[in-house]
Predict the structure.
Amino acid sequence: MTTPSPFLLPHRGKKQGRWTDGALVYQIYPRSFQDSNGDGIGDLNGITQRMDYLKDMGVTAIWLSPFYPSPMADFGYDVADYCDVDPMFGTIQDFKNMMAEAGKRDIKMMIDLVPNHTSDEHKWFKESSKSSAETNPFRDWYVWRDGVQSPDGSQRPLPPNNWRDALTGGPAWEWADQRQQYFLHSFDVRQPDLNWSNPAVREAVRAAMRFWLDLGVDGFRVDAVYWMAKDPLLRNDTVNPEYVEGEDLMYHALNHDNSSGWPAVYAYLSEMGDVLKEEKYQDKQRFMVTEAYPEAHNPLKEYLTFYVGMDPEVAAPFNFEGLSMPWEAQSWRKFLKAFHGALGQINPHCVPSYAFANHDKPRLATRLGSAVARSSAILLMTLPGMVFLYYGEELGMKNVHIPPEFVQDPAAKGDPKSGLGRDGERTPMQWNDEHMAGFTSAETAWLPVADDYRTENVASQSQDPNSMLILYMQLGQLRKNSGTLKHGSIRILAIDNLNVLGYVREQVSAVKTKSTKPACQKYAVFINYSAAPAIFTTDVILRELVVSTHGNGLDGLQTQVEAGTSSNRHLKLLPHQAVVYAAA
């Protein structure tokens, strides 16, 4: 697909700094993006076929969810071999071809790395399961423990503690007859936890990283890092007093203070980061982003702990406030000011890393509504650092109702009362109004296609200048070609309306004018978080409207702004309107 010419912006000189600065990273869930061979499941060749679409979007990097050999108990997050491609998705050669086509378009490649656990079909686990004897070199590659004798003296002992798995909320321990011991699985029963206190395990994961780095990948998204470090004494998790039975997931009946999140995780991640700095990989910047959802009581502290505990030149934690924080201007104003202020004090190399949606959480338009999803697009795409866009969010895709007979997610099957399975946000990409939304030529896909695919798809939205897709294309091309949005600072504005968030992205270049003052490029962003019009005052001198969620309409403001004569002006935004202005 070709981007409409009004939204293609000129490239502004030679690239500066690191590729992570201002990166637009597009998350692809391989099963659901594009099927090239008619089996109803997406694959690597399908991704390759759509590479021009990503370029037109302004995408500068891809995050590829798991494609490794796997029995698919958790759809690829149960890895059976870290150094190969599952035949379902293609071959190593297909991966190389995909990398080559991405490289031609200057698109970087990040792949999912799942270090906490493997599949129970991984050769490491098969060997580890055979014996606890010292003669077995894999005996302590996983977390094995004897059980506790039951009070009634039954034959099988009880699990070592009360830990629960995060997918179903059931016991996190499974008895293995062959070893006569329990193994730990923090997620699905077919995903045994690796023993990260074992140096051999850590080196094996680092070797897998080197395998993919040698093939040219630019980095990793590191899955579920909190679970890599547990209490070495395996003490019980404490009871969560706020848990409401029948309303909350069973997993949340406990406070998981011993089953995850112990300080050793930062040492483990630092060792992984050291691989990215090895001499053979210094030809280009390699980077990893870690997945850890902070506790709600103090997310800022937990984010900053990762920046302090890892080398910020090669690693950053995901910032998940776009997934969890209320859609309120005051909350965002407070967080952005504190977060970016703190990063500046820690290290100039810190890279913010924002994600507003992913394969584990309901889609934005479902969570917040379609109007807010447009506003959030402007927020996400004008923030500093790396921003991650989940496939289909650029169309405003919504969660799809999955009939019981089509449910795939082990979390939904294990805790069916919750109704919170993840299949609804993983449905096929909607390319056009043809059979199966253009995703596959098969009669059916692995998950149902959304009912609205005939009207909400790439082909139709690319022809509509007011569509969500065109809005994202505008923002993606602006971000890709603007040195200010890639490398500039952020300054939160004091706004005299509690429903409006305003900030300035600014870059001071080294070029001097005749007055010896540095040249400056500046954008001002304003977002109305309210369903009502919002009037406010700004001292920023606005020059030209660049992007708006509501086209060019600003309810009579345009004439005032173009005049550019007042440094203090009253502005009015429409309900849920967000705008980007070039500013002086």
Q: What stands out?
A: The chain is about 25% helix and 15% strand. Residues 367 and 398 are 9 Å apart (CA to CA). Confidence is low (pLDDT under 50) at residues 1-16, 510-520, 553-567.
